[in-house]
Amino acid sequence: xxxxxxxxxxxxxxxxxxxxxxxxxxxxxxxxxxxxxxxxxxxxxxxxxxxxxxxxxxxxxxxxxxxxxxxxxxxxxxxxxxxxxxxxxxxxxxxxxxxxxxxxxxxxxxxxxxxxxxxxxxxxxxxxxxxxxxxxxxxxxxxxxxxxxxxxxxxxxxxxxxxxxxxxxxxxxxxxxxxxxxxxxxxxxxxxxxxxxxxx
Length: 200
Fold this sequence. Notes:
Strand content: 15-25%
CATH superfamily: P-loop containing nucleotide triphosphate hydrolases
Largest sheet: 7 strands, mixed
Structural class: alpha/beta
Number of helices: 5
Number of domains: 1
Shape: globular
Number of strands: 7
Order of helices and strands: EEHEEHEHEHEH
Distance between the termini: 18 Å
CATH class: Alpha Beta
CATH topology: Rossmann fold
């Protein structure tokens, strides 16, 4: 697996312009975005992980197999962050979503946590820009029965909220469960007939 870090953007005018299809990883703080990125790229620490909510406050870009860009977006919902930082997050997200090469949002949900109403609203808003796949993280933290119960509850909520999605994947970055299937689905985004050049 050929994977490398490219660049980071802390401001709207720092967002790079790429032609390759881009996949955005988004979710609440500590949902496991960096761990999932590392698992998908088969790297131990290419994407930095942290136990401190809101640590990632930039958009970090990675190149996978010279074909697809991964974008690690700042975690949201961190109550400890100052209002100024939260407002900056919203502005950065607004600018990011309008990028034409963003082809897929991976919306991460910690299967152990209850999904808030605003998260369903957020999924719906993201779906206006690109398809949204829901990724259930940290499934290894629950037993089979509890996982199935929580997943069924989430599916009911999604249906009740009327949130469209392009698939639901359950993964464990720790044990590797579901990682290969998710990676294969993501790689379908790359169209071999397109004559696109990876960033240098």
